[in-house]
Fold:
Amino acid sequence: MFGAAVAFLQALPATSMAAGADTLLQRAVILASFFVGAALFVRDHLSGKLTTGKALGYMLFGGMLLRVYYVLFYDILTLQNDTGTYTGFGTDGVNIGHLGYIEYIYKFFKLPDMDPYEVFGYFHPPVHHIIEALWLTVQRLIGVQEALAFENLQVPTLIYSGLCMLVMLHILLECGAKGKRLLLGMLLFCFQPRMMILAGSVNNDILALLLLLTTIWRTLAWIRDKSYKNTVLLALSLGFAMITKLNTAICAITVAFVFVICLISAMRSKNLVLIRDTLIKEALFTVICAPIGLSFILRNLIVYGKKPGLPTQGTGSVMYMGNYAPWEIVGIPMPWDLRIDFPFHPISAEACHNGWVILFQTAMFAEGYPADLGEALRAMAGIAYVAAIIVAVVSSVVFIASCAGKVFGRSEKSQEERLSFGFLLATFVLMLVSFVLYLLKYPYTCSGDFRYMAATLVFVSLGFSWLWPEESGGIFARALRFAMGTAMAASLIFAGLVILCWQI
Structure:
């Protein structure tokens, strides 16, 4: 429904920024719509009619509303990554970037038949680009003008970003969240600013994130119920994630960890039927997942003799950080390194070369900064940036400590619960380690972009929701929850206002 509405509104000059809509009118409509929804939310809360289901409905609708407005607000060339160019069906040129990759499939009705490292952006697995090329073809067949058809490439990514909210809801439910914890755990996926920006992206990041989240969800479901259905769904989730973007393979390691633990447990039980069933299901997973997930890698190895990797930009790039010591790149930043007065990513390594600082800057405002921003909005950006760091750090600590306690503590947790929280903990830690190694192997400022770590929102969201136990706790606990709630509200509200009001 939202996707169809956006595809229609993109064509109208009165509602699409790309078609020339009045920016002042757009901002007024955005803010008015959102505040009306917030007012209805508060009204139901005060009247006692706000059930958990109804509150979730408000949050999901509000999250989609912001995504829809963002897609209408920015075109396919704004706040993008490795976008490239396109020249249209009437030309036979091969263009670079994700747009060029999509256009190649759309124009020539085949995957690129050259070395994927010859043209920038073509080294990515092709699932996202095939879907977008098919969407372009469908639009052209029904008479949509080509420029508008390309602008509508944001429609599938809008849908992917919306589905991320629903998958996160399932992850929270698998972790036992309910009531207030369920709502608090959904805040980031509904309103985090980078989730809005990814909704309007044209690259493969948001589809890869959706499939990675689905893999986490299906792993938790498989631990709880090791049925053939869950085995197949998990295999498909991870397989298609890997053929959408290679960095999603990180989850293959922790899924393998789960499988090994389950197999050891089955063997210790000495139950031959259980051992047989476990082996069959894990073999079934491998037979389905491996051919799908490794197909693009094997194709490049066999046809072009190329191993998976990334093309480098050379030491002359302004983004190159290799001239700095490893600790300067991945070390814990000092307060003065955070650049609170200008919380935007400056691109240049000379201006900022600490990966963690870049991570937080791009988590809030992507790889860009406004050309003209008033003092009030700039102050809001600084507050949102600092508040986001506080929320992320505290919630991450809470998540790690809570998971470690549930896995290694003496609590009366079942084996399935221990394995579930062990899987989540291992995945989060592995993502943090891989981020550090990635920065050191490819020392460019763009390597610190939050889009590579967007899946960590799962663990930050869980940690944040776990701050609210069923009991109110002592004064310190209540003060911490108040501070964290305030920080979360400040980060989401102020960052949203900045993104909706700046001019790139």
DSSP finds 19 helices and no strands in the chain. Residues 204-307 form one domain.
